[in-house]
Amino acid sequence: MEALTGGPLYQNTMKIVEDAGKLVNLSPNVLERLKYPRRTLVVSVPVRMDDGRVKVFTGYRVQHNQTLGPFKGGIRYHHQVDLSEVAALASLMTFKNSLMNLPLGGAKGGVQVDPNKLSKAELENLTRRFTSEISPFIGPDRDIPAPDVGTDSQTMAWMLDTYSLESGYSQTGVVTGKPVEIGGSLGREAATGLGVIYATEKALEKLNKRISETTIAIQGFGKVGMYAAIEGYAKGAKVVAVSDVSGGLYNERGINIAELARYVKEKKVVKDFPEATHISNEELIEIQADVLAPCALEGVIHAGNAARVKAKIIVEGANGPTTREADEILNSKEVVVVPDILANGGGVVVSYFEWVQDISWLFWTEDEVRNKLREVIYKSFDKVWAFSEQHKVSMRTAAMGTSLLRLERAMKLRGQAW
Ligand code: GLU
Fold it and tell me: Cα of 193 to ligand 1 centre, how many Å?
């Protein structure tokens, strides 16, 4: 059990669940069930490497809860992935999907691998073998994977193809976040970043500020951070700092994000982009900006740096970027923290739209997708804000409380808990 529940993100997440559960007077039976995933799968993923050697990687798929609908959640490729982290992320998907009012449960998968060290052929082999190993447990009505850290639309295309080959016919609804050419949704690629900006707008509105008068620092310039930067910049915000694995950039007058996006397309990393000072990822967290959006990995705002965070609003594009200790420090400084299950919900909301489009074989325009996404984020934000005002709690506790109440009602109706 320790391997499952012992990791820092798992412990952190369950403490948030317990706090919010106490506040909403959650039935102890519901709480007990939600503390553990329904099913965890650990698989060996043997890959023939380009030099002829066979290397075995470890893969996971954790299915946390399916009370509201099929399991849903991304697949992460990262060298530090472990069972406990994947299980914590799977539970966050359950809570996120419940909060966003989607008819979906929660799951997450991962392979312990550094994808940057593999060739494209090796990555394809790994993805196909991993898919094959988990294929009895996934499917358009069972469990629908999507991209996460270290995976992308190409990964989903290989998963879709492998699953369809095994089924004997094309099953586009088995994954979301796939390329538009093979059943993906317009607007999915940018969706998480877009959601981060919609949530930012809402938080600013509550503090009587406008995005066009705001400075933003964004950690991560990948699938989430880059699109958040593009959208924020398009709305007139000054994006003063960004970063990726190569380090960070700072310019107090604002970085030209349109040019940076073009630069990164060619060079792959933000490093050495002109007209900006080089900073580290750690420095970015403490930079002078109105809004800080951590859009990379978990645990980056911790007891060691939280007191020095200057932003008044934090919008969590990543899952679990703030530790519990940091959360307490930020709360005492009255920083508004828009929690992950609300701030980065845009990705899975458009995944849901994609799944619906695949099932109905009817595809929407990008404007339709964006407008519907904005509506969901705004509505969820207002719900969480009202809850936090009513109960005088942080937005994190409010988001979890709101999510738990919906889950509890559904679990009771289905006779899963009393
Ligand atoms: N990996 C994303 C997340 O953590 C998206 C999941 C999905 O679209 O299923 O929310």
Answer: 12
Which three-class secondary structure state does DSSP give residue 260? helix
Predicted local confidence at residue 417, as pLDDT: 84
Provide the domain limits for residue 196: 191-338
Are residue 22 and residue 164 in the same domain, yes or no? yes
| Cβ-contact 274, 294 below 8 angstroms | no
Pair (160, 204) in one structural domain: no
- Taking the model in full, what pTM does it have? 0.97
Helices 395-413 and 366-391: angle between axes, nearest 10 degrees: 100
Give yes or no: residues 42 and 167 share one domain. yes
pLDDT of residue 250: 98
Instruction: Decide if 56 contacts 45 (C-beta within 8 A).
Output: yes
> Residue 337: CB partners within 8 Å, gap ≥ 6?
313, 314, 316, 322, 327, 330, 331, 394, 395, 396
Average pLDDT over residues 312-333: 97
Q: Which of 22, 35, 55, 108 does the annotation list as catalytic? A: 108
Which of 201, 180, 198, 224 lies closest to 371, judged by CA? Answer: 198
CATH of the domain at 205: 3.40.50.720
> Is 108 part of the annotated catalytic residue set?
yes
Which residues surround ligand 1 with Cβ inside 6 Å?
72-74, 146, 148, 176-177, 319, 344, 347-348, 351
